[in-house]
């Protein structure tokens, strides 16, 4: 099935399958990352994991997963399909053959364009996921504020204030409709600017290291990479990409978790300045260790499933 056609659908289908597998593998640590970056009261990654487990059981790690499972599969389909087809278009334009191997400059352009395009679909998906993941954090914060105001007038001890069990959002659809009602369409794209700052360089440091590692791990230039090599190259590329993207990811997470009723940040610059003044430079690397650990199995699974699916479809 290897043809010179510039546009292929099998890249999108393989991306869809890879995306679904990566969400299941990576969501628990993604929840930890979001809580560390946008929440309060967590000392480090281990403390965050233990706190979530003790207060919310294992299910706490899978909060908000139904929406990413449905949407990130489509998102990864677009990302991998767009990236692969863009490579072929560049090769056809520059070398006259869509099958011609891309150089590093070609890969960089394709990666940056992919990062830019991904924000259009990814920003609303990330916002809904983060607000669902932060539900416990939001409710607790609101109740602590209430308890503080009551105790000022009555000397009522903080522990006597009961925490209601209801959450702000009933699910993904309710979160989308609530955001649209209170913040408008632009509310769904809150943090999109920070996401561009994250994903344009982030995807460049995702696809290029993957290509380099795959080439290094191949026995010769013409050979197909071994599944083990694909898994390792994908995992290393994911860790590199996520660690370097952490500062922009922190800003994005904070902006997206910042709901209309308790708006804290005016925009990207205000979020950066406020976070730096109140928590120091180290705040921009909060969740970096989680990103490094989470990035490996997620990306290893994503690339391996994508490549194997692609090989299957092209063998038919």
UniProtKB/TrEMBL annotation:
GO terms for cellular component: mitochondrial inner membrane. It is found in: Mitochondrion inner membrane. The chain crosses the membrane at residues 65-83, 104-125. It comes from the Eukaryota. Its main location: mitochondrion. Solcar repeats lie at residues 6-89, 102-216, 225-312. It is a multi-pass membrane protein. GO terms for molecular function: transmembrane transporter activity. Signal peptide: none annotated. It holds the Pfam family Mito_carr. Keywords: Membrane, Mitochondrion, Mitochondrion inner membrane, Repeat, Transmembrane, Transmembrane helix, Transport. InterPro entries: MCP (IPR002067), MCP_dom_sf (IPR023395), MCP_transmembrane (IPR018108), Mitochondrial_Carrier (IPR050567). PANTHER family: MITOCHONDRIAL BASIC AMINO ACIDS TRANSPORTER-RELATED, SOLUTE CARRIER FAMILY 25 MEMBER 48. Belongs to the mitochondrial carrier (TC 2.A.29) family. This is Solute carrier family 25 member 48. The lineage of its organism: Eukaryota, Metazoa, Chordata, Craniata, Vertebrata.
């Amino acid at each position: 099935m290897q043809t010179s056609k510039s546009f292929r659908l099998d890249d999108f289908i393989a991306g869809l399958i890879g995306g679904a597998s990566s969400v299941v593998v990576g969501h628990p640590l993604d929840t930890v990352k979001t809580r560390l970056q946008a929440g309060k009261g967590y000392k480090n990654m281990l403390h965050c994991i233990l706190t979530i487990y003790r207060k919310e059981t294992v299910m706490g790690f899978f909060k908000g997963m139904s929406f990413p499972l449905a949407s990130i599969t489509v998102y990864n389909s677009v990302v991998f399909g767009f990236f692969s087809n863009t490579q072929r278009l560049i090769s056809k334009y520059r070398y006259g053959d869509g099958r011609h191997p891309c150089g590093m400059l070609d890969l960089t352009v394709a990666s940056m364009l992919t990062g830019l395009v991904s924000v259009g679909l990814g920003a609303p998906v990330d916002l809904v996921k983060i607000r669902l993941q932060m539900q416990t954090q939001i409710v607790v914060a609101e109740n602590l504020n209430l308890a503080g105001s009551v105790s000022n007038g009555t000397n009522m001890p903080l522990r006597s204030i009961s925490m209601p069990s209801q959450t702000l959002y009933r699910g993904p659809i309710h979160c989308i409709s609530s955001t649209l009602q209170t913040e408008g369409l632009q509310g769904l794209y809150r943090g999109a600017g920070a996401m561009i700052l994250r994903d344009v360089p982030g995807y460049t440091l995702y696809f290029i290291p993957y290509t380099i590692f795959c080439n290094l791990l191949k026995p010769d230039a013409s050979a197909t990479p071994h599944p083990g090599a694909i898994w390792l190259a994908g995992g290393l590329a994911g860790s590199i990409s996520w660690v370097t993207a952490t500062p922009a990811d922190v800003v994005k997470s904070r902006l997206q978790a910042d709901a209309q009723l308790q708006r804290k940040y005016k925009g990207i610059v205000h979020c950066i300045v406020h976070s730096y003044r109140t928590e120091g430079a180290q705040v921009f690397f909060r969740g970096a260790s989680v990103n490094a650990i989470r990035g490996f199995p997620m990306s290893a699974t994503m690339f391996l499933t994508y490549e194997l699916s692609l090989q299957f479809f092209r063998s038919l």
